[in-house]
């Protein structure tokens, strides 16, 4: 579950690019909680405006390193986790389009959506919790990526610590790539 603060501006007046500019933080609103996340097992995280801005800046740098630029598409298959918000902000900073992929889609349909998106970079998570059970999202995605050679990079958010199959040169841990972009 997400709770987003409206301390920057009223929701109707806030646009994605405006929310990602450093002027918003330097104006004195850098400390209030902007995003509060609580996961299925009660695990929670909070981010201030300045922390979200820093994460978005690093993530946009990371995506640029992977070849994403203005007009490009980034395919995203993430549950409601903070990295999903950071990805959206990073895409906005780059003027790239975020293409959300549905979880639970049959492999063939997911493969077709990936192809149609034209995305060369895909972001996913090692696994998700549904009703207390762990599901390997990256494992399902790997099956769909068979026959999608246009996807050059897959960023994997480490959430549950599930074992994942790794394709050398294509797959990257989100947290490691983010740290390298700082």
TrEMBL record:
Segments forming domain AMP-dependent synthetase/ligase: 33-165
Molecular function GO terms recorded: acetate-CoA ligase activity
Keyword Secreted assigned: no
Pfam families in the record: AMP-binding (PF00501)
Cellular component terms per the entry's GO annotation: cytosol
EC number, as in UniProt: 6.2.1.1
Signal peptide: none
Source organism, top-level taxon: Bacteria
Enzyme class, UniProt record, top EC level: ligase
UniProt entry keywords in alphabetical sequence: Acetylation, Ligase
Keyword Chaperone attached: no
UniProt GO BP: acetyl-CoA biosynthetic process
Family matches, as InterPro entries: AMP-dep_synth/lig_dom, ANL_N_sf
PANTHER family: ACETYL-COENZYME A SYNTHETASE, ACETYL-COENZYME A SYNTHETASE 1
Name of the molecule in the record: Acetyl-CoA synthetase
